[in-house]
Amino acid sequence: MKTIELILSILIIAGASLNLHAEDKATPPPNLGKITGPEAEAFYLGVNAVIWGYPAVKFEDFMRERTSPEILKKGNPQAAVNQFGLVRDLRGPEYKIIATPNNDTLYAQAFCDVSREPLILSVPKVDGNRYYGMQLWDPNGDTFAYVGSRSTGREAGNYALVGPNWKGNLPKNINRIDCPYNGLVVWGRIGVAGPEDVENARAIQDQLRLTPLSKFENSSKRVPVDLEFSKQRVALDIPTGLPQELLFYHKLAESLKHTPPKTRDVVVAESLSQIGFKKNNTEFDFNSLNDAQKKGLAKAYQFALYTMDVNAQTTGITVNGWRWSPKSGIMGTDYLFRATFAKWFTGGNAPQEAIYMDGRKDDQGEYFSGTKKYVMHFKKGELPPAKAFWSLSMYNVSDGSFVENVIKRYAIGDRTPGLRFEEDGSLFLYMQHDSPYDPKKKANWLPTPKEGFYLDLRLYVPDDSLQKGTWSPPKVQVISS
User: φ and ψ at 152, to 5 degrees?
Assistant: First the structure.
């Protein structure tokens, strides 16, 4: 057990040094105390199970939540399984359901199940300057395909989303996309040039369709969604007497009915039988566990969440204070990173589609604070190398939401009206709480909160210069405090 105790102490020290905040959806380090015997064994196996299974459980939670009218209170549209939920406005500070949203695109999102038959994804023709992307990701968070301006072009098309067990023939002129599981997400983004362009993006949303193969016709009509199937698909029965602190493990067993383990997952999957999982891991029998094992599993869940929070602020490659991961959206067997990704970066793109660079510290190594003033200086010819667009967004460190401000600016980038460049072609971006007096600085101002914040630099359809090391983002410099 010494090895486990050493790992625990290292992670707790690391979390303390990373300036994690309990209020920013992060989990405080659990008070583990001394763990021995059956409790320690259950704790060890539980940590592995939670980290491995967290994305699939999160997927089911999201799917279930999207079908409920309660989702409307959180700023997301209600949608049944296999139905698009259309986000009709650009995200603002009122949106807090997912940390680090973008203010660049309108969303069209659908949680899908293709266990009965394929779904046909129909997309309209999109004008030549507009970015759009329909990202397809599985319950583990791995992106497996794209339909969109970068990957398939801007012409109208029909794409069959085919589950792993389906046998049959598709109509002609239908492009086949094989899905690794029966569950998947269509995470669509439609680029918006500004508030005056929102209606044009909505018109594209209105032409998106998801149609069961058996009801597909090559027309613009939408087929009514099967609400009864949707209701059955998201149903969750919670056993009487199940302790709240063990609810995750029951949800994990339920999720494995829809997202079974791959061959590569055999070590973790086989260990579940030692902590109450039965019937090929699709049932969690908490009554078969003794009190020590239950305590170990409860502590394991809290510690696993905390470990994801630590990983969220340490994983990836750091360049001039900006951190990004070349594994974003394609995690494979990096179980900790894919769990972290599901908790903090839900639906993040794969690097070929978009790169997200997370900024937390200034050029002096200090965390960003609204009590200081900052500047980013892009030299001539060194703007972010994005073929579609780039933007810089700012978020409250407390909950990952946009920073409310008097000018209602939540992102700044190559589509920002009135952006002022220097005579030599370079660009300065200013970040501070109070409005700059200089009109040029005010035009390039991204307002900060009074408290802590973090930044996200997005590059949509980037080239490979970041990977090759021929381009890097400038440091965020302190200019006044």
Answer: -125, -5
**What pLDDT, in 10s, does the model give residues 295-351?**
999 999 999 999 998 998 788 899 999 999 998 988 989 999 999 999 988 898 999
DSSP 8-state code for residue 154:
S
Please, what is the angle between helix 291-312 and helix 335-344, to 10°? 80
431, β-bridge pairs: 374, 446
Question: Widest CA span of the chain, in angstroms?
Answer: 73
Q: Which residues pair with 2 in a beta bridge?
A: none
Take residue 285 and report the two structure tokens written for it.
């029998």
Residue 227: other Cβ atoms inside 10 A: 12
Nearest residue to 19 via CA among 400, 479, 398, 409: 398
52 Cβ contact list (under 8 Å, min separation 6): 265, 268, 335, 339
DSSP 324: E
Handedness of CA 395, 65, 248, 356 (dihedral sign): negative
Distance CA 245, CA 296 (A): 11
Domains in the chain, ordered, with CATH?
2-63+233-312 (no CATH), 82-224 (2.60.40.1610), 317-480 (2.60.120.600)
Tell me how far apart the alpha carbons of residues 385 and 387 are, in angstroms, rounded to a whole number: 7
Distances (CA, A) of 182 to 112, 164, 310: 8, 7, 32
Take residue 384 and report the two structure tokens written for it.
């972010």
Closest CA to 286 of 248, 256, 318: 248
pLDDT of residue 28: 67
Tokens encoding 31: 């008070």
Q: CA torsion, points 161, 337, 262, 144, in degrees to nearest 10?
A: 20
Compute the distance between CA of residue 46 and CA of residue 300 in angstroms, rounded to an integer.
Answer: 5
CA 196 to CA 461: how far, in whole Å? 23
Non-local CB neighbours of 70 within 8 Å, separated by 6+ positions? none
Angle at 163 between CA 161 and CA 168, to 5 degrees: 85
Within 8 A by CB and 6+ apart from 133, the residues are: 146, 147, 148, 149, 150, 151, 188, 189, 349, 353, 354
List the beta bridge partners of residue 258. Answer: none
Angle formed at CA 386 by CA 383 and CA 389, multiple of 5 degrees: 95
> Hey, what's the torsion of the CAs at 198, 202, 203, 209, to 10 degrees?
160
Cβ-based neighbour number of residue 60 at 10 Å: 23
pLDDT at position 414, please?
95
Phi, psi of 480 (to 5 degrees): -165, 155
Q: What is the pLDDT of residues 64-114, one digit of tens each?
A: 999 999 998 888 899 999 999 999 999 999 888 777 889 999 999 999 999
